[in-house]
Design a protein that fits this description.
Blueprint (H helix, E strand, L loop, with lengths): L1 H12 L6 E10 L10 E5 L14 E3 L5 E8 L7 E6 L2 E6 L6 E3 L2 E5 L2 E2 L8 H28 L2 H7 L7 E3 L6 E3 L3 H9 L3 H18 L1
Parallel strand pairs: 1-8, 1-9
Antiparallel strand pairs: 1-4, 2-3, 2-5, 5-6, 7-8, 10-11
Helix pairs in contact: 2-3, 4-5
């Protein structure tokens, strides 16, 4: 019984030892200040840095705003340990320092914001916007080219102005090109054909042209 009491007294008299916490927190951003969302933030160590191995492999994920927080168990002997913080393949060195950290009830908090060198990936929304913009540019360029070609011809200029070009036909007697609505007059004036015969010839020619179409 006495031995049990002695053990209890020794246990009560022994100081309670608990490790402090050293927290590294901050925001991870791209060069354009865009937050690095939902990416792993992990700790690695330099080769042969044995004092760092206890922290190696610790990892968290950034949130929607790019904020991360690494909570590390800290002892007095960890002061000055160099850590390598890795985000998307890029490395950032952080040295544990209680002097440069904020103390809060025996725990320490060190702010360490990270800015990556790589540009942010193209999001699906941005890709769709870019593709849509390129599509409209191509359509607009095609319209400009077709309009330019039309304006190079008299018929095209008439269509551009909202006027349909006058259809033409070939005189079967002289081979000249005349507008269709002037063919009868051409036969009367140029070839001295009576009006009735000129109208009949023109009608017959127009009928043949429609069949050819």
């Amino acid at each position: 019984m006495r031995s049990v009491i002695v053990i209890l007294l020794l246990a009560m008299a022994s100081p309670l030892v608990s490790a402090d916490m050293y927290s590294i927190y901050g925001v991870v951003k791209y060069p354009n200040n865009t937050a690095v969302q939902y990416e792993d933030v992990s700790i690695q160590c330099e080769p042969h840095a044995y004092d760092c191995t206890k922290f190696s492999g610790e990892a968290v994920m950034t949130n929607f705003g790019g904020i991360y927080r690494l909570d590390l168990p800290f002892e007095a002997g960890d002061e000055g340990v160099m850590l390598i913080i890795v985000v998307k393949g890029e490395q950032f060195h952080h040295q544990i320092s209680t002097q440069n950290a904020t103390e809060d009830g025996g725990d320490y908090r060190a702010e360490f914001n990270l800015t990556l060198e790589q540009e942010p990936p193209l999001s699906a929304l941005s890709a769709g916007f870019v593709c849509g913009t390129i599509f409209f540019i191509l359509v607009f360029a095609n319209v400009l080219v077709r309009t330019g070609k039309q304006l190079m011809t008299p018929e095209g200029r008439q269509r551009f102005q909202g006027r349909s070009p006058m259809p033409v036909t070939k005189c079967q007697i002289c081979g000249g090109i005349v507008r269709r609505h002037l063919l009868v007059r051409h036969l009367i004036v140029e070839h001295d054909i009576p009006p009735d015969d000129a109208g009949a010839l023109a009608g017959l020619q127009f009928s043949d042209e429609r069949h050819d179409l």
